[in-house]
Automatic annotation (TrEMBL), chains A, B:
GO terms for cellular component: membrane. This is ascorbate ferrireductase (transmembrane). It comes from the Eukaryota. It comes from Cucurbita maxima. It is an enzyme of class 7 (translocase). It is found in: Membrane. Pfam families: Cytochrom_B561 (PF03188). The chain crosses the membrane at residues 14-34, 54-73, 85-108, 120-145, 157-177, 197-218. Its cofactor is heme b.
Amino acid sequence: MAFKRNFNIMARPVTLLGHLVAISIAVLILVWILHFREGVAFKSDNKLKILNLHVLLMVIGLILFGGQAIMAYKSIPAKKYWRKVVHLGLHAIALAAAIFGICMSFKFHRDIQLKNLVSLHSWFGLITVCLYGLQWVVGFFAYFFPGAESRRRASLMPWHVYFGIFVFLMATCTAELGLLQSLDTWFLLGHTQENLIINFTGLLIFLYAATVVLTVILPPLY
Amino acid sequence: MAFKRNFNIMARPVTLLGHLVAISIAVLILVWILHFREGVAFKSDNKLKILNLHVLLMVIGLILFGGQAIMAYKSIPAKKYWRKVVHLGLHAIALAAAIFGICMSFKFHRDIQLKNLVSLHSWFGLITVCLYGLQWVVGFFAYFFPGAESRRRASLMPWHVYFGIFVFLMATCTAELGLLQSLDTWFLLGHTQENLIINFTGLLIFLYAATVVLTVILPPLY
């Protein structure tokens, strides 16, 4: 494919687009949860607030921070070591948010006595978080501490990139499934403002993922 | 990224995995539609048969044939010209199935008097098919007939590949949304056989997409 040679734009401007899309998604999710829904809570008699916390942690934590972590190598004007630290740190935040977010969804299910792990969304989500954790641990030991020997690092790198993108896109797909599921049942859907906000959020999340992946395959600015 | 240099496996065995996954998906979808649902029909008093035709055309037509079209450059042991003809032909079949499939879903909506283009699934689907058609037309004129001049072809190629993968993954995501939506409402979900079949189909479709994308970035066998 020789992507690197042929693409005629650089990664840096695309990371700017990524940041803009990320901000738009954060705004839409906050408007949705705070204005159209009841806000968030860790403990509440209004159980939907717990589910909203799940949504917030997953979209802003896992998707937005995870995407920023992937783009870090192209967006941060610093030495390689510091970009790696940011990459690792942001992924740790994303992973922690995802684990906490999944706990919230189990808590919500327990509180309103719904069965766990029934929907396609839940299957995708649990697999995604397990793979995300695995990828983080392997990445940490291979590239940060103690670090594998140089040849092994190099031969692992394309797999690290491919598998990382795979897991990120699986997280994206899980988010889309969650957004669809949040409108309860499609026979109840209507052209309400909330419906439109959810659909636009879904499109923007997909655009964000496409932008993040593009920054990975584009050559860096320097 | 220099994927090509570093990956330590070739595309051909991965295309075999792709074929196996494709067959599994086709079997699961057929079992689902023919055994658990009422089968397919173009015209019927049982309107769900029309929706089933939509599912069949989208999964087997758009996703499976589309994926085979993408893999054609790595899976077919023939000269470049014939691989291109197969690539173009399979994508044409996929696109035709998708357009026909979308018509079936509009027909289903009209027959049971549901509003069109409300759900996230429908938004993703319509955008996907428009982009798929655009990609096909641009690809046809740039690379088949009359064909752009050589330098222009080369500089367009990474974008053709990136955009093609983008559209294919969007189709994949749309299929996942459709599978989730097909179980009406998540409060009605249960650990039924049908639910399990749908979830496993969803996972296999994602695995198929990941396999197809991997064959694109891996070096060919020859």
